[in-house]
What we know:
Oligomer: heterodimer
Structural class of chain A: mainly beta
Largest interface: A-B, 22 and 28 residues
Mean pLDDT of chain A: 93
Order of helices and strands of chain B: EEEEEEEEEEEEE
Amino acid sequence: GDSVTQMEGPVTLSEEAFLTINCTYTATGYPSLFWYVQYPGEGLQLLLKATKADDKGSNKGFEATYRKETTSFHLEKGSVQVSDSAVYFCALSAGNNRLAFGKGNQVVVIP
Amino acid sequence: ETGVTQSPTHLIKTRGQQVTLRCSSQSGHNTVSWYQQALGQGPQFIFQYYREEENGRGNFPPRFSGLQFPNYSSELNVNALELDDSALYLCASSLSRGLKNTEAFFGQGTRLTVV
């Protein structure tokens, strides 16, 4: 079935550092890909999405490019802030709004 | 403000009991999906309702059941609660028109603890 794999472990970095969170997927067909963010005590918020190969999703300084050849959708931000501390989930959907999520990565940004 | 509200926000139940969680969809949305998020894990799809009918189910036993009402609000019912049912339960609403779907908006979740 469809699945998403995120890199293991939390990510701790200093303010203004470069952030990368790896995400790879397995799916039949051509899924849409998403990054969601979850702040402490809150539900999920859509951060960005891409619906076809080579699309780049972007929002709030975050970017991710849909790479069909490597089945990847890595999240990047050039200069993180303390307010970016949260849990980030990569997800895919086959078009029916049923989302398959990765395990998530805790990001901690230190001032 | 996503417009998706869930109740209650927290509750504690005893093993073997039954629980009902509620979700009010965003205005204009006709599809509701429920997810279970265990501690430290990503959300897992439980099932989806579209126009009051179940429209897909994940790998969850029949003691997980649901309803969608004419106003598109929804309930998740879990019977014979087990300790492993302790999790954050998330509701997501969206608008489905044929093969087109809008973005799914999530509520803040209900934290269920089974003791």
